[in-house]
Write a structure and sequence with these properties.
With 488 residues, the protein is of the alpha+beta class. The protein has three domains: 211 residues, FAD/NAD(P)-binding domain, CATH 3.50.50.60; 166 residues, D-Amino Acid Oxidase, subunit A, domain 2 (D-Amino Acid Oxidase, Chain A, domain 2, 2-Layer Sandwich), CATH 3.30.9; 84 residues, Arc Repressor Mutant, subunit A (Orthogonal Bundle), CATH 1.10.10. The strands form five sheets. Strands 1, 2, 9, 10, 11, 12, 19 and 20 form an eight-stranded mixed sheet that branches. Strands 13, 15, 16, 17 and 18 form a five-stranded antiparallel sheet that branches. The chain has a four-stranded mixed sheet with strand order 6-7-5-14. α1 packs parallel to α5. The longest helix is centred in the first third of the chain and has 20 residues. The model has no long low-confidence stretch (mean pLDDT 95). The structure holds flavin-adenine dinucleotide (FAD).
């Protein structure tokens, strides 16, 4: 039975950023992820916003880690290579009453240490965002956008190249504490560790319950989004948020450009019973479009090309008002169990700062020795369309795969598909390719390139066609032949 210093359950943005922090030290670390790739849960389905820290109460952990995380994002983007655009956001007030609220948000933001906040009038907004209709707005220049999966993949792949073991498709099914070690039962065998980090997101209560009686509940709360075609990307250049609704502890339906050049509308907020219920509903689609019209009167309904939803991991029920602070703590009943509970928004932004905090907590019981050969790899993919003609022809001369376009919408070459499939985490689903090089993310949504990627997976990577998955072991790409051969 392999014994690790630290075992992390869950490879969302929280587990992956903790793994990366730990990988800077000489420790044996393992990450168990039940999905076929990292970023399979909430970390994949959110707004992708780098929050500034204006929305959380002063002195809360949410405010502290959001402000700290926000400051860390730019240097991290420079070294790890994920894309970042600090486009800023407006919180708009539609009348005098809401103007008082945005002034109050400004005060809270300043107390939290958010710099350069400014109240602007309608004329100033119109010069930057001519399509927006409002009375006044709070301008927040330190808010930005990232691609949440690129961000998570950057941490996880950098942890993996520094010897963290990522066990994908590995579900933690039971835990026991024996002597000073955790015994971790999974569908792929039993493992041991000195420290156990519970970063299982919506499943964090289940993980605690294997070891002790949890003193909290998780209330899943679904947020639905609509995605607009890139053709409408000039609708706005910054993010537009309404004054947050009083109930449910959420920020309200906002309109946000994405790093890929689409526009996002959402999220709704609806408490649900089943944390796996990621439906997109007609009812919410109508509500989202209505709310969008209040912000942008000329909102183009026909621009919607797809929908998705993400599930918030709430520690507070609707009756309790929906807002609760993060719980980042070592269990008193089970020493060595470090729990990350209720990591809802701004969890993406806060992740790098939370990871540093968890490292501090672990260093109280494990000796940290910096890894001498620690390596940083920039994951940025330079797309062929961004290269000079000279660079393109040099690359094609060296490797002719650079000359074969596989995804026509996003201009992705066979060489980039190969690089994506050769990722250090050994994730080999169709989604793993899509999230690493953008093949299949364009207007035709994989209609053209899927067959070519399947051929590359089969011929160059020896993946059996019957075992190819879209994104998880339960999403087979092929169920059998449409027409059986005679005598088969
Ligand atoms: C609608 C919405 C919008 C949001 N917008 C933003 C935003 O714009 N900016 C921002 O900063 N934050 C935002 N957030 C918050 C942010 O997305 C989360 O805080 C963050 O993704 C939480 O990451 P996580 O790693 O804790 O959870 P997850 O990403 O859910 O990771 C948990 C992982 O654990 C795995 N797992 C669970 N159980 C087991 C098990 N038994 N064995 C093995 N693996 C297991 C899961 O498969 C999953 O991959 C938003 C959230 C939502 C829902």
């Amino acid at each position: 039975m392999k014994n690790f210093h630290v075992a992390i359950v869950g490879a969302g943005v929280i587990g992956s950023s903790i793994a990366w922090e730990l990988s800077k030290n000489d420790l044996d670390v393992v990450v168990f992820e039940k999905g076929s790739d990292v970023c399979s849960g909430t970390s994949k389905a959110n707004s992708g916003v780098v929050h500034s820290g204006i929305n959380s109460p002063v002195s809360s952990l949410k405010a502290r880690f959001c402000v700290e995380g926000n400051k860390m994002i730019k240097p991290l983007s420079d070294s790890l290579g994920f894309s970042l655009k600090m486009i800023g956001k407006f919180v708009i007030a539609k009348n005098e009453y809401e103007a008082k609220i945005i002034n109050n948000i400004k005060k809270i933001g300043q107390e939290n240490g958010v710099p350069d906040l400014e109240i602007v009038d309608e004329n100033e907004i119109k010069t930057k965002e001519p399509n927006i209709s409002c009375y006044q707005a709070l301008w927040v220049p330190t808010a930005g956008i990232i691609s949440p999966y690129e961000f998570t993949i950057a941490f996880a792949e950098n942890a993996a190249i520094n010897n963290v073991n990522f066990l994908l498709n590995t579900n933690v099914k039971d835990l026991k504490k024996k002597d000073n070690n955790f015994e971790i039962k999974t569908n792929r065998g039993v493992f041991q560790s000195n420290i156990l980090v519970n970063a299982a997101g919506l499943n964090c209560r289940e993980i605690v319950s294997y070891l002790e009686e949890p003193d909290f509940n998780i209330y899943p709360c679904r947020g639905e989004y609509l995605v607009l075609d890139k053709e409408y990307s000039d609708l706005l250049t910054s993010m537009i948020y309404p004054v947050p609704p009083k109930e449910l502890g959420v920020l309200g339906v906002h309109i946000t450009p994405t790093i890929e050049g689409n526009i996002l509308l959402g999220p709704s907020a609806e408490y649900i019973n089943d944390s796996e219920d990621k439906r997109s509903t007609k009812k919410m689609m109508k509500t989202l479009l209505k709310e969008a019209n209040e912000i942008i009167p000329i909102f183009p309904k026909k621009a919607v090309i797809s929908a998705y939803s993400g599930i918030r991991c709430k520690l507070a029920s609707p009756n309790e008002g929906g807002w609760a602070d993060y719980r980042i703590e070592e269990s008193k009943k089970t020493p060595g169990l470090i729990n990350l509970l209720g990591i809802e928004s701004p969890g993406l932004t806060a992740a790098p700062a939370i990871a540093k905090e968890v490292l501090r907590m672990i260093s109280k019981s494990l000796k940290m020795r910096p890894k001498l050969n620690f390596e940083t790899r920039n994951i940025r993919n330079i797309n062929i369309s961004e290269m000079s003609s000279k660079k393109k022809s040099d690359l094609i001369k060296k490797e002719n795969r650079w000359g074969r376009i596989v995804c026509r919408c996003e201009n992705i070459t066979e060489a980039e598909i190969h690089k994506a499939l050769n990722n250090p985490l050994k994730a080999q689903t169709l989604s793993a390719v899509k999230y690493r090089c953008r093949a299949g993310m364009g207007r035709c949504q994989g209609g053209f390139c899927t067959q070519h990627i399947v051929r590359i997976m089969e011929e160059d990577f020896n993946i059996n066609i019957n075992e190819m998955n879209l994104k998880s072991a339960n999403s087979k790409l092929f169920y059998g032949r449409t027409r059986e051969k005679k005598n088969d």
